[in-house]
Amino acid sequence: MINYPEFLKKCDKNTGIILFAFFAFGLALRLLNLQFISVMPDYNVFIEGMDYTRFDNLARDILAGKGIEGAYYQAPLYPYFLALVYMLKGASYHSVRTIQCLLDSLNILLIFYICKSRINILTGLISAFTYAVYSVAIFYSSLLLRTSLFTFLWVLFVASFIFAEDRKGKPLFFILPGIALGAAVLCRENILLMLPFTAGALLLNKNISGKVYKRLIPTAIIAICVLVIIFPALCHNYKTEKSICISVMGGANLYIGNAYDSFRGSIVPESYKNISGSKEKVNWYHEFFNSVKTYPRAFFSNLLIKAELFWDNYEIPQNANFYLHKKYSYILSSSFSSFRLIAALALIGFIVYIKKFARIWIIVCSILSVFISCMLFFVLGRLRFPAAPFLIILSSISIDWAATNLFKKKYLPFFIVAATLLFLKMFVWQKGGYCIEKTHITNLGIAALQKNELDTAEFLFKKAMPENGDAPFLPAHMLLAETYRRKGMYEEASAEYLYCIKINPESQVAHYNIGICYLGLKNKEKAGFHFNKALDLSNNNIRLKQEIDRLYRETEN
């Protein structure tokens, strides 16, 4: 893979120019994507209950001087990152997205450096270009979620670790990777899985001389740096909740992803969404071990399901849907997006480079850390994405291997890669497009409703309605009814609310709102019936009764 054709040698001489072009191109794609998705109703409107809403609220509390009250529900770095951007640029969500696009584009340069240091320049250029046009990376850089920041910190850690290794393991050079890893842990604590792998990388590195214990000194330096950085967070949680973890959701998430009654380890069940606090955390660890002990076969079966989900093409959504964004963004719809293709080529690249395994140990272990984390907890597109940069590096080895041998008229490597792609196309890749979940379309409608864009909201809620024969999706009907009510279309609204009551006769909200519609239609008899039903369901709530009395007075006036 070192003897390139002549034109590749010319590329070698102009590496800096080519790399800068890839960086600029990748950044341009990310910024253009922001322009395309800026028309989405939820671009500047947050929906209650979503992670990005929680991060935004925490950032505003930090700016107001309140800090984060109570134990950290999730690792705390991202809210502080948002607060910093808000302080510098005002509470501008577009500014946050722009900075994340820049950070994600810097990954292009870091990935090239990793490849150049551990493999060769051509593989670095292939990897840099692939990541620049990888639409899933472009997608996550546009979201107000910690995925993009976390991935940047992880890639920075690996690049700085390799830089320090190549300086013959001199201890001071390992301070930077320690800082990067510590920051990444504050963004998502399960990256601590990487620490023992770094020790393995140092033991395998023949460039570092000395006895075994001397080779482990850099690992100790990294561990100390990590501890210094996360120590304030540990103290905060211990002081507030007597918890020694960075976030208090570890036990609950462990149970969610592995319990016998969990949703195949990929979707958070509704009943577990509001778990917080150290008491519940201890209970959920206990519940996890009890579940594994009681249903061991189900536990291992669930692991196999999660392994399949991890390597699947489908970007399992939470908070935002990649396939819905593709409908709005030409950049996402026309860019490369196949995770399974990258993974398959990465496997070939790993096999090709197996004799030099010590050189790519840290890259392979980065992938394993993400994989193990998802196996322990659950698989979501944004949780597995940090493995993508390192899979792209390994996949580029296979492309380089096949192309180089093809120029030498050695066709077997090319046919191996081509046969792999053909097999994936014929037998593995899903036929047709992936579904856009009704909940994500409904969320867009909620955002439009909050902005009082009633026509857009009506269109989206109708689009979220189930197809013929599918089970009814009650939230879409309830919200469509609310949209009609706000537009003064009381007959259409009452028809939707009646449908909701037919599905769920105990819906206090539906009875109350249809009562308002009947008041608008001057039908006090039906309004009274449904108001009384709402009061019965609320156990004659005093505030609800006062609100109904107020509505009657306004109608009489």
What does this protein look like?
This protein has helices at 6-13, 15-37, 51-63, 77-89, 93-118, 121-133, 135-141, 147-165, 175-187, 194-204, 212-215, 217-241, 250-258, 278-294, 296-310, 322-328, 330-334, 339-352, 357-376, 381-384, 388-407, 412-428, 438-450, 454-463, 474-486, 490-503, 508-520, 524-537, 542-556. With 557 residues, it is an all-alpha fold. Helix 2 packs antiparallel against helix 5, helix 10 packs antiparallel against helix 19 and helix 19 runs antiparallel to helix 21 (388-407).
SSE order and pairing:
Blueprint: H1 6-13, H2 15-37, H3 51-63, H4 77-89, H5 93-118, H6 121-133, H7 135-141, H8 147-165, H9 175-187, H10 194-204, H11 212-215, H12 217-241, H13 250-258, H14 278-294, H15 296-310, H16 322-328, H17 330-334, H18 339-352, H19 357-376, H20 381-384, H21 388-407, H22 412-428, H23 438-450, H24 454-463, H25 474-486, H26 490-503, H27 508-520, H28 524-537, H29 542-556
Helix pairs in contact: 2-5, 2-6, 3-4, 5-6, 5-8, 6-21, 8-9, 9-12, 10-12, 10-19, 13-14, 14-15, 15-19, 18-21, 18-22, 19-21, 21-22, 23-24, 23-25, 24-25, 25-26, 26-27, 27-28
